[in-house]
Amino acid sequence: MMRITKNDTVKVIAGNNKGKIGKVLKVYPVTQRIIVEKVNLVKRHRKPRSQQDPGGIVEKEASIHESNVLLVCPKCSKPTRTGFSTLGDGKKVRICKSCNETLEVGE
Question: Disulfide engineering: 10 pairs with which of 42, 69, 87, 98, CB 3.0-4.6 Å?
Answer without folding.
Answer: 69
